[in-house]
Amino acid sequence: MRDKLYMTVKHLTVALDVLFIVTLFLKYFSYLPAYFNFIYIFYLVLALNVYYFSLKIRSIKEDERENTPLVYISKYMFLLSLIVLVLNQFLKRAIVSDYISYLVGFSIAFGFLTFYASRERVEKEIEKEKIDEEALEIKRKGEFASKFPKLSRIWGLRRLVRWMYKGGWWYSAIVILLILIGFAIRFYKLGDLSLWWDEEITGNYVKKIVETGLPSFSSGLGYYWRGVAYHYLVAAFSLIFGLNEFALRLPSVLFGMGIVIIAFLFAKKINKNVALLVLAWLIFSTYNIEYSRFARFYIMNSFLFMLAIWFVWEGFFNNKFKYKIYSIITFLVMMHTVQFGAIFLSLIVVWFFFNLIAVYSSNEKLKLLKKNLVNYFLLLIIALIYKLDNLFYRLIPSNLDLEEVVFEKALNFKIPNFSLLNFYNTNYLPIFLIFFGVTFFVYLFFRNVKQVKKINFVSYLALILIFSISLYELGNQNIGGPRIYLFLEFFIILFSILSFYLLFSLFFNKNFKFIFILILFIILFLLIRPLFYERISLEYGDDTSRDPFRTTDVAKYRADYKTTYEYLKDYKTSNSLWITVMNSNYFYFSEMPNYIFNQNVNWNLYSLNDGAGHFISKREGSILINTVEDIKKILSDNPDKDVYILVNGGSVNILSTTHVKKDFLDFIEENKNKEVYTSPDRYSKILLFKKNDH
Description:
This protein has three domains: 2-120, no CATH class; 168-394 and 427-534, no CATH class; 563-689, no CATH class. 61% of the residues lie in helices and 4% in strands. It is built from 30 helices and nine strands.
């Protein structure tokens, strides 16, 4: 049967290769139509050739494979292609960049054949390294009391010193030093700059919770239940440390470092050296640092996802009931943190997939199904939590007397565009780097689940990577951007390192392998911009437009959202009017504007119609206006009042969307003499139209 398959694939491969050469000839002489996409033909032919050669490798005895020309050529062609791709990250040669898709394809193909030929040896080496590590740690743990009799009696210190001795003094010292550096980086100037963009929302509703116990709108017309779990947590920190920028951002620091530490512990289940590389990368990760210093719930969701990975593993895979309960509680909190909390379901899909295969391949199907009855019941609870979504919307509805303006929105189903993977591939690490690590551990999954009905922890992570990406691409319609993609960072790092760790096992010994991977990843790390020190040293007015990880994709520079409101607080009188551009900031100034100016196409979306021709902002209770003529009318109708216009620089100078149009910018320029305050960011300002002077 295998011989027939081999001969069939061989003949098909030869025929397709000939067709490919003919197509290549036609492409070279421009005989193919413009719409013809040659890359698809290339990958189809490449995949079939890889399959044919893998069958050829399988027919060779394991101890003879590495001496064959096929495996020898594949091994060193892979190494050469990898060197070319990494060097081109620096050199940016056009000849390499123009053919990058083909080079990546060849690199994956040669790497796969190299890995396939030696997969048993690599697996044995990894398993031996892990067994040796665990044996040494057990030995050190056992001899700790006899070697350090005095320290072993001191509660607290005993645990730390024993952990350091067990893991190795130098190794443990490096881990502790890196973690301390990670906290220092994230705490540096944490509260120096104002809240900005969505941080304003956090500040406004945390302040309301502290004042009233509820995240109510400043207008009193409703509640902001999005991220309710996060906002109450941040409010607790604000009660301890005060209502300030530092207190609001502190939970994000803890969540960000929580992700780093959990990632290290996960990676340590594979190998201590892999764990150290993962830890070092994430400590200095510009991506993690950005969201660890931003007062919004995205980093909390990513942290809870990491926590849920462990709870589901211990609960559903290792059958520990208390962790099943922890899993459900975590999911409930995630659903009340951000709408993307539903990514938790990818973990349950992995368990269900594993269970499905285990039952299918079992001779005692009914017994296995009965064993999982409790789990199936818990799945119903999880489905109910997903269906109910945020319970606060149902329990505490808003009572409005005014008619709400809502635009009809069509539900558009789309073919996956792999925006998540494209983001990482473009701005982070070449996505093909994860291929070998994921492939190896998925292979182990299918082998183990059929033979021993068990799943390796790293295989579990590999399946989470696959199913979470699939769930996002197929089920997500309108949630995207780096703030959402953050949940995947650990997986990209881990499996990129594992890919090199697996493949370089074929070239180098244990110590040299670690050094080579370390150097390679330092090079790759330095290519990701901005570097961490550029991020934490930002000042008002600094350019953020080239930062792909920024918390908002429309920000052009670091705007000041604070000092303009402090000016109003000091100088505005009770009988004057004020107009603000786009938004108000209750966190810095509790008084709401009389008017909110907004020239976005959806300027009155979700507003309230007061029946007198005015659209009222539901959150602030302010009248919405959207033309310069509206401003001029307000000025002419109120000659006996001072009128302040607060210009939010972040809204007048942005990369995309329209908050204000050219006529408003012209109006600001024409009334430059009315400026009474200009922010350090150079764009945010206040104009004062004095009474009897407008």
